[in-house]
Design brief:
This protein is α+β, with helices and mostly antiparallel strands and 253 residues long. The chain folds into three domains: 3-53, no CATH class; 61-112; 116-252, 2-Layer Sandwich (Phosphorylase Kinase, domain 1). The chain is built from eight helices and seven strands. It has helices at residues 3-14, 20-31, 34-53, 61-74, 80-112, 116-134, 145-153, 237-252, and strands spanning 140-141, 171-180, 183-192, 195-203, 210-214, 217-224, 227-233. A seven-stranded antiparallel beta sheet has the order 1-2-3-4-7-6-5.
Length: 253
Amino acid sequence: MKQEDALNLLQPYVDGELDAATSLELERYVMGDAIARAQLARLRALSSALRAEADYHVAPGSLRTGILSRTRGAAAPGSQRSTRFASAQWLRSIGIGVAAATVAGIATMTLLRPTLQDLTEHDIFAAHARATVSDRLLDVASSDQHTVKPWLSARLGFSPPVLDLSGSGFELVGGRIDVVDGQRVAVLVYRRRQHMIDVLVRPARGETPSAKSRDGFNLNHFTQNGMSFWLISDLSANELADLARLLMARSGS
């Protein structure tokens, strides 16, 4: 199975639309492809989020009763005109109901539709959790920025800024390559006391600055000189913001 074919099959797989043989073949492929695994995790999380957030409402019995009573009340026995009037009223009621349901459905999907930045942030939370659980925080272990930077640059299509911030209490311990939005990104790893901090760096894509918290982790994002920085850690939000400010000032200069 080719990667393009596998990526195209992930959504039908998550929706349970594939036959058993194709599902098995896809599962075997995904085990050996980090990009496909990351995309599958993102689709599953999105599916779960939509199911958790969407509200399903059964039409009340009073709606049917109201339609029937209006129809019966309008149609006098033996009156063809009344019958036509009742039919028109019934169709109008149904039309209004369908229109209302359509508008409500569109509004709901618009409100719940995740933005590209939402999906990116989810990928970053997942990447950090995956690295922490698997104990694979570092591909290159070094506190020397002149060792970490060329190692990362040689494996990426861009050169990430790597800064020594030990004088400010953030010790560089190394870096690794990870996958976000199906693309390889640089991850700089810093330590603050006993807290490990991932700083994911890639060329900017028009994201907006943000600061969020989820499941005990804090996320801080900014862009500088055409690069996008995503900081994530169980460090306090205030201290993570301090690191963001340091990185912004130093990478800007």
